[in-house]
Amino acid sequence: MNKKFFVLLIAVTLLFSFNLSGAELKAKQVAAEAVKKSSISDSISYIKKQIEGTTTASEKRAMYILLASLQEQMAYYEDAQKSYAAAASISAGAADGMSKKTNEQLVLDAVRCSLCCGDFNTANSYLNSSVRNSKNADVISYVKLYSQWSALTAANSTEDLQEPIEVLKAYLKVDSMKKIQPAILLTLWYVTGEVSYSKTITSDFPKSTEAAIVKGDVQLLPAPFWFFVPKSGVAEQGTGTFSSTEEPKTETKSEEKQTVAKKYTKWQLGLFKTENNAKLLCEEVKGKGFDASVTTETRASGTTYYIVTVKEDSKGNVSDRLRSAGYECYPVD
Prior knowledge:
The protein has helices at 3-22, 27-35, 40-52, 57-73, 77-88, 103-116, 120-127, 137-154, 162-171, 181-192, 195-204, 209-215, 275-286, 318-324; strands at 245-246, 260-261, 266-272, 292-298, 304-311, 330-331. By secondary structure, it is an alpha+beta fold. Residues 3-21 and 242-262 have low confidence and may be disordered.
């Protein structure tokens, strides 16, 4: 082979290889590809690999946020905490088509994940960073709440609970904390077991997640921070609003009441603020043979949620099969 031609061939090959390896994917492209993976674990591995080869700050930051949200969803709280912190450490704007969270919000996400694995020391290190001097009122309200959550997590006895409980009670009277009152009330109810807090939640915030927890429609997972907290009372959940029965009219002369359990046609698996996370769960459930879909719901606050639901099928035992497959679910109609 002609020597010059051989050298040229090598140069062209190297150039072509460089273009292939140097072409970085955008975060929204990575998110779209992650949805196609067979499981959320595979999606996490894929995103990690893409982060390693990404040099554009805004895209890398967005990928870390995507990774953290999936890790948190899978209850990998320690990993999620690190990913949120990594995203917060990058000074860059939001990537096109991706989450527009501020770095302060990401620090709070890292705090929450730290508390979910009982690591109050790491949580405090984040809370004592520049986020404590934020000019954003919402951020400050969460800094205050999470500081008390951290104190509860650090408690070793019911005596240690008294100070954070009193602070939380005081927060119920502070106007700047009104936005997170449901979370404060839920904390007080869970730690003290006092029914007055659960009644306030269900009466004043009937459509909140906290109300669903109190009613028993949503179960607390075994990892969130309050499972590390000693309690001064027992917070008893309801049996669930979906367990009620109908009493249809009968044609018997004895007028005996017959109760018939309602037959549900759809089951909810998850509610997400991020569409990509909802799609990932939907595709994973579809892959296991369920008729899953994603719908949207916009609340009065203006926040849009993405809801993953599964339709009942001819076998009539979708809820049992979902739970056997590892998915918590509850009826929605």
